[in-house]
UniProtKB/TrEMBL annotation:
Residues 1-250 form the Pterin-binding domain. The lineage of its organism: Bacteria, Pseudomonadati, Bacteroidota, Flavobacteriia, Flavobacteriales. It comes from Flavobacterium ginsengiterrae. It catalyses: (7,8-dihydropterin-6-yl)methyl diphosphate + 4-aminobenzoate = 7,8-dihydropteroate + diphosphate. This is dihydropteroate synthase. PROSITE patterns: PTERIN_BINDING. Pathway: Cofactor biosynthesis; tetrahydrofolate biosynthesis; 7,8-dihydrofolate from 2-amino-4-hydroxy-6-hydroxymethyl-7,8-dihydropteridine diphosphate and 4-aminobenzoate: step 1/2. InterPro entries: DHP_synth-like (IPR045031), DHP_synth_dom (IPR006390), Dihydropteroate_synth-like_sf (IPR011005), Pterin-binding_dom (IPR000489). Its EC number is 2.5.1.15.
Amino acid sequence: MGILNVTPNSFFDGGKYKNESEILSQVEKMLAEGADFIDIGAYSSKPSAEFVTEQEEIDRIVPAIKLILKHFPETLLSIDTFRAEVAKASIESGAAIINDIAAGELDDKMFDVIAHYNVPYIMMHMRGNPQTMQSLTQYDDIIKEMLFYFSEKVAKARSFGINDLILDPGFGFAKTTDQNYEVMQKMELFNVLELPVLAGISRKSMIYKTLNITPQEALNATTFLNTIALTKGAKILRVHDVKEAVECVTLFNKLNL
């Protein structure tokens, strides 16, 4: 899953894809490198991210969806949003998947929209919202609490008739650096829920702060952790750098582990 941020303030590529030619060039590159989906975000969810209105998010994302599908009509687009109206507008514009960092917690209409349009739904673990999540890192047993969280979310989704579900542990969301590594270390435990797990660790602070480098210097370490995630059962890698992730997956599959 290749990441395309149409935001001015994302932690790694904010403001990089501002006009049509920049967006199309990046999408073409990711597709050529083997991306199965493109995940478009129009609201930065980095810690303490600035608030963006619902209408502004729609105004950013819908033109990007239409532009990409006009030039690359076969592309599967995933939309990174926690707002039901943004999800609705995106699906009606041609998006195929909704990727919700809040798993419905921040908009009680989200499950209705997913059920109505019958699209795959990625549910991530988080507490609070992007503005507050880093103050909500107190757990007695983080894995046990995450499993309980996901089991509740899966039960609720299925009560709405939503069955095409993907789980995202939410690296960097309401978790300290040490907690992120504990989640990575025990990630195979999420397989008990019998759903595909997405790993989104690309160039995140759990990498660059640990190594005392910048996000721009974090590709090698991202590749290493993506490989670990695959050994732990991850089925989707959400990345900025598609070529390297595809190489990871190809060699991992060759090993038949």
